[in-house]
Amino acid sequence: MFLKFKDEVSSILSDAIAGSGFQTDDLALGESPHADLASSVGFKLASKYKQSPKAISEKIYENIKLRTGSYVTRAEMAGPYINFFMSRTFFNETVRSVLFEKENFGSLDKKGKVILEHTSANPDGPLHIGHIRNSVIGDTLARILKRAGYDVKTQYYINDMGRQIAVVVWGLENFKFDETKKKDHAIAEVYINANKSLVDEKEHSPEVDGIMKKYEAGGTEIEGKFNRAIDTCMEGIKESLTRMNIHHDEFIRESRFVRSGEVNLIMDRVKALDRTALKDGAFMVDLKDAGIQKSLVIQRSDGTSLYTTRDLSYHEWKTTRCDRMIDILGADHKLISSQLKAVLRILGSKEPEIVIFEFVSLPEGSMSTRRGVFISADELIDEVEKAAYEVVDKKLPDRDEEFKRKVAKFVSIGAVRYDIVRISPEKATTFDWKEAVDFEKQGAPFIQYAHARACSIIKNGKDEGISFEDFDPNILLESQEIALIKKISLFENVIDNASRELKPNIVAIYARELADTFNQFYRFVPVITAEPEFRPARLALVECSRIALANVLDTLGIFAPESM
RNA sequence: GGGCUCGUGGCUUAGCCUGGAUAUAGCGCCGGGCUUCUAACCCGGAUGUCGAGGGUUCGAAUCCCUCCGGGCCCGCCA
């Protein structure tokens, strides 16, 4: 509904601008604490027309023609600003449309296909707290884009040809695999031991190189070994992802592009470029004209391919299958991804949109699976769940064990996801255990609680025989009611912005504001205990809030409980 | 050394791309509110040279330059 209001304001304003003889494409419309939408267009035109912003705004204002029965009730001058306000019709239609659309409320018109690649951690150990920043950002973006109308397929790109996985394969033949551990953790143990030994005894390194070359050449035996190693680790990784309510539609192995010959094809195309030169037996692409000083190696001197070469084929393959390609990558991929984009551009291919997130480090420094220095996602969730259980046990001492466990589970997953997604991806963070297990801050439980509270009111309303099948929305006049309707109407605008800018934190912030606005309504406006004539409309508004809260939580991949 | 990026109350953080009306919110701190629909809540208060300096502009947290501090990266790893 908000987008319709915005469209109407835009159309009214551009007509007024044209009517007063000015010309501009920029309506300078934005949200404001003083209005539902405000325009500072007077400022924009001031220098062009050599008049004061106020004088320009006044002329435009005089030409504003509001339409009867529209979503805009009035426009006001406030100094050089022109403010627009929502009408009763807008409020009433918002309430009705939310009740009608239910779980589809906030979903936008159909758009094209998106392939979104996220997580893609190497199968050499469990996901750690850095990886899950990728997973949570990626999964949330996928959910946002789905709501924005895209047909989204998520992919996990498995690097099965890199050195690390060869080390794992070698390690499995030389070290004990601990069957008692979760599989990805047992793989990590083997990987860590193998790396230690490789540092200590250099002679093992040629063995690893040999394994890599063998795998690139292919063959049943070597592929079987890799498959076992990868499948074992991926089983554990998938388990962790599922626990966090994260799902991938496809798992794509980079080796398939080598086997299919696509890597050779693209290498030949790159080699044919004038900018590609042979240096010390390796093929290197010059990208200086793209603003990248470092040239890119696409083929080793031994003839084998590199990560970027295979990634090039992967992206070429994706290009034909979607309208938008989105990759979620860690900050260490900044250079390599800009090189990838540059080469794709030179080849005349579509470039991916890349969302870079900064590192999560430990107080003592950066994490490393290879060195065994990391906090796994499993460990984090276990600890957060433990802390959540303590809180639940204190707050709900009379509830049965099963209920408390269930609540602790969804509260902890919500808290972990929310804590990650609320922060802008470009912010580097340092992990802090005290922060991680703190439930006092206004995070996911706050929003989940608001949803549970709304459910409870609706249930009580039903028990009291109050129905919102038939209600008069005009009776919703309290400031908290209006504020709540406005906030709910903003959801589609939030989805629209977040999907355009690929910023999941916009949705996280909105979710918190929505819960906040609902709580204020709850505190000041009685529903069940109100005078009978108010009950149906207010209960309807609670249902709208419940729907909005459920839909935002769903977009964040966080469970919306009926009680907690 | 070069490139990219971040720096906003004690702590965490929004806004920055697309400059505009008193800089967002939480934690913590101070004070108030449960015989009332779930108090994991609500209300009020204190706390800011928006890293520093310069520039552009009618107007800068936002754009440009320099510097300082943190993070990431820098040709045959991924």
Describe this structure in words.
By secondary structure, this protein is of the alpha/beta class. It has 21 helices and 14 strands. The strands form 4 sheets. The chain has a 5-stranded parallel beta sheet, with helices on both faces. The protein has a 4-stranded antiparallel beta sheet with strand order 1-2-4-3. Strands 8-9-10 form a 3-stranded antiparallel beta sheet. The chain is globular. The two termini are 31 Å apart. The mean pLDDT is 93. It binds one RNA strand of 78 nucleotides through α2, β9, β10, α13 and α14.
Total number of β-strand segments? Answer: 14
Radius of gyration: 28 Å
Low-confidence stretches: none
Question: SS-based structural class?
Answer: alpha/beta
Q: What's the pLDDT, averaged over the residues?
A: 93
Q: What percentage of the residues does DSSP assign to strands (E)?
A: 5-15%
Number of H/I helices: 21
Side-by-side strand order of the widest sheet: 7-6-5-11-12
* Biggest sheet overview: 5 strands, parallel
Large-scale geometry: globular
Give the distance, in angstroms, between the N- and C-terminal Cα atoms: 31 Å
Helix coverage percent: 40-55%
Quick summary of this structure?
By secondary structure, the chain is α/β, with parallel strands linked by helices. Helix content is 54%, strand content 12%.
